[in-house]
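Propose amino acids for all 433 sites.
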């Protein structure tokens, strides 16, 4: 009874912390501008199935994709076992499904053990790849501090959790031969290799180790559920809505502001007097997170910090101070700062800081060539360029702060309808024989 109460309390505490954090994340995402995205539902679901569920873009690099898939599949499938943990924990039973499922239970448990070993190996490979092989995108200063620790910590936690499953099963199998309380599971292949480590232990010590591994695993899973909401591993869940709400337009398409389009059409006499600009244009572009669309903010929480975007970025490759990964991390960090301030009754967005300036510098956004390489590279369909363009729009239109070289181009477009300084009538001279 004491164990059941302890279990129920642990479960409730985890649910409370997860709910609290999810509500905070939702409030932070709602800082963004409203945007209705619901067109082409079939294409959007296709993205969810292929890109989020099927990890289609990950498979552009087969080796990491294979190991990532092992962790992903292991995470999804092994967690089915948690259902049995929860029922056993609340009802005070032990392996409640074993008598019901008989031989199928043995097959299932062996499948879980196979996945546990696969996850364990994949995590070791990723730890080596991240810390020993020296891949540039993992050594980047973008990841200094918590992001690097977070990435390593999650791999270590997964290894420890998988070891706990195998230890629990090894000791359980030994106890099945000594204590009738332990329901027969049938032979479990991988954990049987650990059995010699525990064979010489007395029964009560063995029960202690088995119970410790059981509690360690379930508390670890619940702690992991809370931890994930503070980590880049939130992408496990948010990759799904993020791929659904991803932009479907061709990559070269840049969103216009309707108010500006109408103004230009009106100047060119293309409106037939029908279109009129909205009464209140609001701010041009984005200075802070509340000027971005909520989908941009959700994308920041979905970022896996993999750095594939930064590795492909030509500005970054040529030594410019631009990393699309850092852009996404900055958006998320700013949201977190504002959200925390609001939760504490502080000034929130009016804290004297802004995304552009305090987190992302003009030097960074001006280095972007708008090439879309980062968008193409992202395995979860994040679009850092959309954010960069909004920040640049603010800089150019609200602050008149575009670099001097750009201003002459703007002027030429305004007067000659082309970036170059010659009359509009000469625009097609290049095509003359
Ligand atoms: S669009 Fe900008 S940020 Fe993205 S890869 Fe190209 S230059 Fe880099
Ligand atoms: S934006 Fe995409 S590619 Fe870039 S770090 Fe995040 S998940 Fe990786």
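Proposal:
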């Amino acid at each position: 009874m004491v164990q059941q109460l302890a279990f129920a309390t642990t479960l409730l505490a985890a649910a409370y912390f997860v709910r609290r954090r999810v509500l905070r994340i939702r409030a932070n995402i709602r800082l963004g501008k409203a945007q209705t995205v619901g067109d082409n539902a079939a294409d959007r679901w296709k993205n969810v199935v292929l890109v989020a569920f099927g990890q289609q873009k990950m498979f552009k690099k087969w080796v990491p994709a294979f190991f990532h898939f092992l962790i992903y599949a292991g995470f999804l499938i092994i967690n089915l076992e948690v259902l049995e943990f929860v029922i056993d924990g609340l009802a005070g039973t032990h392996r409640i499904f074993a008598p019901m499922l008989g031989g199928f239970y043995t097959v299932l448990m062996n499948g879980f053990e196979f996945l546990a070993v696969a996850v364990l190996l994949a995590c070791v490979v990723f730890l080596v790849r991240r810390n020993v092989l020296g891949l540039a995108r993992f050594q980047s200063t973008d990841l200094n501090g918590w992001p690097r620790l977070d990435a390593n910590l999650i791999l270590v936690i997964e290894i420890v959790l998988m070891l706990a499953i195998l230890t629990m099963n090894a000791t359980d199998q030994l106890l099945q031969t000594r204590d009738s309380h332990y329901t027969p599971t049938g032979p479990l292949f991988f954990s049987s290799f650990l059995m010699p480590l525990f064979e010489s232990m007395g029964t009560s010590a063995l029960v202690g180790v088995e119970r410790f591994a059981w509690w360690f695993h379930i508390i670890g899973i619940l702690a992991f559920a809370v931890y994930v909401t503070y980590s880049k591993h939130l992408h496990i869940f948010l990759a799904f809505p993020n791929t659904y709400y991803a932009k479907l337009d061709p990559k070269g398409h840049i969103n216009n502001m309707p108010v500006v389009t109408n103004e230009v059409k009106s100047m060119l006499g293309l409106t037939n007097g029908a279109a009129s600009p909205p009464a209140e244009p609001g701010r041009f572009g984005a200075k802070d997170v509340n000027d971005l669309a909520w989908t941009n903010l959700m994308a920041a929480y979905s970022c896996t910090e993999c750095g594939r975007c930064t590795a492909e970025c030509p500005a970054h490759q040529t030594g410019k101070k631009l990393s699309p990964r850092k852009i996404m991390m900055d958006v998320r960090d700013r949201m977190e700062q504002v959200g925390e301030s609001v939760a504490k009754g502080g000034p929130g967005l009016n804290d004297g800081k802004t995304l552009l300036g305090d987190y992302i510098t003009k030097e960074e956004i001006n280095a972007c060539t708008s090439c879309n390489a980062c968008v193409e590279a992202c395995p979860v369909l994040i679009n850092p360029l959309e954010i960069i363009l909004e920040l640049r729009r603010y800089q150019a239109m609200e602050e008149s702060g575009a670099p001097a070289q750009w201003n002459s181009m703007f002027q030429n477009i305004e007067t000659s309808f082309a970036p170059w300084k010659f009359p509009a009538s000469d625009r097609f001279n290049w095509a003359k024989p």
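Residues 220 and 317 are 40 Å apart (CA to CA). DSSP finds 22 helices and no strands in the chain.
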